[in-house]
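chain below, 160 aa
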Amino acid sequence: MGWFLLIQDSVGERGLELTQARYTIGRSRKSDIRLFNTYVSRKHAVLTRVELSQTEPHYLLADAALSDEPSANGLFLNTWRRVGVCSLQQGDVIHFGPQACAKIVDVATLSRARKQQLELAFARAQQLPRLHADQNTSVSVFEPADQPELFKDDTQIWTH
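prediction:
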């Protein structure tokens, strides 16, 4: 059982399977997970894996304030504002300001094709110029051929 991070912001929906021990999250090109919205700080948050058991991963989310300047808009977990460190579980929705969010899902709930589509979109978004990260611009990371039936009914994934 692995964790997958679904991301929704100004460039659309994308995602990645969480396999690393640590991820930086923010608007900066140096972030491991780039978010594209003016409400997101350049260094917004840090996601860190902690080993509680050998069978299930566990992640902690920390506002960048713990190691750097505080993020301007803070972190909201399942609509509650959190300051400092939050323990995450599958199904949690993280808000990085009003127009950028992510959801933790079990990777086994995604079809292989859906997972590949989201990961391809993630890779494309990571390569976008800084211009798009610093402006509230709508830019799609999907080619027209990448948007078939897979993206029509995602309401189940995003409802908590």
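Residues 3 and 31 are 19 Å apart (CA to CA). The longest strand covers residues 3-9.
thats it, cya
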